[in-house]
Design a protein that fits this description.
Layout lengths: L4 H14 L12 E12 L3 E3 L2 E6 L2 E6 L2 E3 L14 E5 L9 E7 L2 E7 L30 E3 L7 E6 L4 E9 L1 E3 L12 E8 L13 E10 L10 E5 L2 E7 L5 E7 L10 E4 L2 E3 L18 E9 L4 E8 L6 E7 L10 E5 L5 E7 L11 E10 L2 E3 L1 E7 L1
Parallel strand pairs: 1-8
Antiparallel strand pairs: 1-27, 2-5, 3-4, 4-6, 7-8, 9-12, 10-11, 11-13, 13-14, 15-16, 16-17, 17-18, 18-19, 20-21, 21-22, 22-23, 24-25, 25-26, 25-27
This protein binds 2-acetamido-2-deoxy-beta-D-glucopyranose (NAG) (6 copies).
One 2-acetamido-2-deoxy-beta-D-glucopyranose (NAG) binds next to strand 1 and strand 8.
């Protein structure tokens, strides 16, 4: 049915009048003032690609993709390990602890100081049959199993008194050639569990959570890689977004206590929840406008009472941050819009939002980061954006 412009306007108006104004599917967040660049998210000893963050009690855990030590001349050296993690701290007022004069072999920096004992081994262990003898998953035939965490761990259990935490990460088992081409465009997905006893369980603040591989093939290559494109937890339900090679974004849900139980999952297909998992290329799986196609972050905003995606547009390389919102994880999502553009002298990607860096539930703002790849290595600027 074709809608005339006036009937379309009448429909939009009735949608707006029917509910909370912020719940209209046309809600477009607008930036207030000029975003501030606060510095870099930086580990003085590790050069790291593509970091995301999760709040773990009184600290934030950052997980990153390929990581390398800095050599004495400030340039990254071997070994490459396919993932790393680290902690960052808060000020006593709940804002992230931005420090100046952070000393590293590549100079002095201002930003958020990352620390933690990685020991040059992958934070997410490489499955044994995926060239795990090499810390980067590199094989003798020059191919590579690139076990890159694209989404930070999703916490489903946290005990405020002990700081003990349990969280989950889904990682596609990307098998790539030396020119970074995927041998299987829709790789299977592994499920990892991240466990932490809390700072009280360990006298060493540098100790990182432990990680176990729960299931090497949790999703097969014939299924959407749910959880590798974004996820969130609201009211005891985990929502997992997955994107296939063709750009389709699908959605699954599971009770937060049943994450490792495959039979407890439901999938959003043809506008309804079903227990039958769809095929990776099935029609009726895509959630329209649930993102602008590139990498980003999903979260629930209590201040807007809306679900939010912030990230990059597909097939773009500029510093254009997009946002879209929806009243429910399955939509309807508004058309994504560009709300902030960052200038860089390198290639920016892995656009991330960091809801875990906000301590005050009434703070109408978000922290953002992105990765810049330069000939001297990677760095991760951090920005603070206030909304109108
Ligand atoms: C962030 O890192 C880049 C690359 O190392 C550097 O040029 C820049 O000065 C750093 N920014 C701050 C605020 O330290
Ligand atoms: C969570 O559950 C409470 C109690 O049922 C409800 O009032 C609230 O709207 C729910 N929140 C969301 C985001 O669904
Ligand atoms: C799904 O589509 C992709 C192209 O986007 C194709 O390469 C792949 O073989 C298809 N997978 C299946 C199981 O049909
Ligand atoms: C797994 O989920 C199914 C479906 O919800 C449920 O019947 C079963 O009890 C769950 N298994 C466990 C071990 O909780
Ligand atoms: C890929 O997506 C396009 C629309 O964006 C669709 O026409 C095509 O059938 C899809 N291909 C597969 C293999 O699903
Ligand atoms: C930016 C974007 O992806 N817009 C899409 C929103 O959804 C409508 C309906 O599916 C598409 O036509 C737009 O291209």
């Amino acid at each position: 049915m074709a809608l005339t412009r006036s009937s379309y306007l009448a429909l939009s108006l009735s949608t707006v009048l029917a509910g909370n104004w912020a719940k209209a599917d046309s809600f477009i967040p607008k930036v207030s003032g000029t975003p501030q660049i606060l510095g870099n998210v930086t580990d003085p000893t590790i050069c790291r690609d593509s970091c995301g963050s999760t709040r773990f009690g009184s600290r934030v855990l950052w997980t990153c993709r390929d990581s390398q030590p800095y050599g004495s001349n400030g340039a990254p050296i071997f070994p490459v390990y396919s993932s790393s993690a680290s902690w960052t701290d808060f000020n006593s007022d709940g804002t992230p602890l931005i420090q100046s004069g952070i000393q590293s072999s590549h100079g002095e920096e201002t930003g958020l100081l990352c620390y933690g004992d990685n020991n040059e081994t992958p934070f997410f262990p490489i499955p044994q049959d995926e060239c795990s003898d090499n810390s980067a998953g590199g094989c003798s035939d020059k191919t590579r199993w690139a076990l890159w965490p694209n989404v930070p761990p999703l916490m489903t259990f946290g005990d405020p008194s002990s700081g003990s935490v349990s969280a989950w990460t889904w990682i596609t088992q990307s098998h790539i050639t030396s020119s970074l081409a995927l041998l299987n465009p829709d790789p299977p997905t592994a499920l990892y569990q991240v466990n932490y006893d809390g700072p009280t369980g360990s006298s060493n603040p540098n100790q990182l959570p432990s990680v176990v591989l729960v299931e090497e093939t949790f999703w097969t290559s014939d299924q959407i890689p749910y959880g590798t494109y974004g996820n969130l937890l609201v009211n005891g339900t985990v929502y997992l977004y997955g994107q296939n090679a063709n750009g389709t974004v699908g959605l699954a849900q599971v009770p937060s206590g049943q994450v490792s139980n495959l039979t407890a999952y439901q999938y959003y297909v043809n506008d309804a929840w079903t227990t039958t998992i769809p095929g990776v290329n099935d029609t009726g799986v895509n959630i329209p406008n649930a993102s602008a196609g590139g990498q980003g972050t999903y979260y629930y905003s209590s201040i807007w009472d809306l679900y939010v995606w912030i990230g990059q547009k597909s097939n773009t390389i500029g510093g254009y941050f997009y946002v879209t919102t929806a009243p429910a994880p399955e939509g309807p999502w508004a058309e994504p819009v560009n709300f902030y553009t960052v200038e860089t002298n390198g290639l920016p990607y892995t656009f991330q939002a960091h809801p875990g860096l906000i301590s005050d539930p009434n703070e109408n703002a978000i922290y953002l980061s992105w990765t810049v790849s330069t000939t001297a290595g990677y760095y991760t600027p951090l920005a603070y954006v206030e909304w109108e």
